Amino acid sequence: MSIFELLKSKVKNSSKQYRIVFPEGKDPRILKAVRKLKDDNVVSPIILGDPEQIKQVAQQEGISLNDLLLIDIDNYENLNEMVVSFIQARGKEITESEVREALKDANYFGTMMVKMGIADGMVSGAVHSTAETVRPALQLVHTAEGMHRVSGSFIMEREKEKYLFADCAINPSPDSQTLAEIAYQTVETAKMIDLEPRVAFLSFSTKGSAKGEMVTRTVEAAEIFAKEHPDIISDGELQFDAAFVPEVAAKKAPDSKLAGRANIFIFPELQSGNIAYKITQRLGNFAAIGPILQGLDKPINDLSRGASSQDVYDLAVLTAAQALFKDKE
User: Fold this and answer.
1) Alpha-carbon distance values, 88 to 96, 107, 112, 146 (Å)
2) What is the pLDDT of residues 71-95, one digit of tens each?
3) What is the pLDDT of residues 2-58, one digit of tens each?
4) Which of 68, 134, 245, 254 has the smallest set of CB atoms within 10 Å of its CB?
5) pLDDT value of residue 2
6) Are the C-beta atoms of 193 and 6 separated by less than 8 Å?
7) Could you tell me the residue ranges of all domains in the chain?
8) Are 292 and 186 in contact (CB under 8 A)?
9) 3-142+304-328 and 151-284: same fold?
10) Bridge-partner residues for 21, per DSSP?
């Protein structure tokens, strides 16, 4: 069973139908995905935007809007309540006029719907940048209890093979504490997809074969994680082959708990993680699912601007699965 078949099954079989808000209602890819999500009875979609413009695009694309909830953010009847909640969530001095101006942005409006519990999650990024999607989430939803930052992981899938790469989207130069937290967040994502976590902290060094600030940072991260989560199999610092190939691990890291069978790979910095997932996707013919935003109090996820309608559909399923997983915690 593929990752999305698994997550879709979990979401459909839950006692609750999860409400996912889509701020980019005028985009044909969004409308096609939302129509399919509704028809498949997977989630309850909420579309934001000018209803007349949305109807015009839907008509041009031959998409039925029957039974779909459209919200005009410029004429929202509960806007005053949302303004009050925004000011409380922002946690800093901000004027009412500034809030009302911010809420003209569909990403801020959608984020507040999630914050207020009107929606269970949000999917954006088809026409917005990652920063435009993530910034409102950090300002209003904030990080989950015990978390200090957000990270972005990718599920890499090829037939029965499933791995997690992080951080591939958010933190350019994480320190050791941040790397340890990214690892924990990625373990939580692994649990959501029923993957038994085996965490490798990657480096260009294996067990002291090289020296340097980057190596030290990875060693410290592995030590922090092992101390805080002794029940989770982990090790580092390891080169990729020592983390992934049992025969190499036996030579380079014979005492490693992973024994060359890691399935979660924590990269020392963003550049490495981003390059690695793209190489794995293109040369290894893996499906790259993500970036999955981790560490937020409520699920908000970011699409690539090159996303297809199927990508939108899949990320909505994943977002609903994150909401389901949080409800079970």
Assistant:
1) 11, 18, 11, 20
2) 999 999 999 999 999 999 997 788 9
3) 888 999 999 999 989 999 999 999 999 999 999 999 999 999 999 999 999 999 999
4) 254
5) 87
6) yes
7) 3-142+304-328, 151-284
8) no
9) yes
10) 46, 122
- The arrangement of secondary structure in 3-142+304-328, i.e. its CATH architecture, is 3-Layer(aba) Sandwich (3.40)
CATH fold for the domain made of 151-284: Rossmann fold (3.40.50)
Task: Give the whole-angstrom CA distance, residue 107 versus residue 124.
Answer: 7
Whole-model pTM: value is 0.89
What digits encode the pLDDT tens for the residues 274-283? 999 999 999 9
Q: How far apart are the first and last CA of the chain?
A: 24
- Contacts of residue 131, defined as CB under 8 A and 6 or more positions apart, other chains included, come to none
Which of 307, 284, 315, 293 shows the shortest CA–CA distance to 27? 307
Instruction: Tokens for 33, please give them.
Output: 């995905």
Pick from 132, 173, 171, 167: which is nearest to 152 by CA?
167
What burial letters (b/e) apply to 193-232, b meaning 16+ CB within 10 Å? bebebbbbbbbebbbeeeeeebbebbbbbbebbbeebeeb
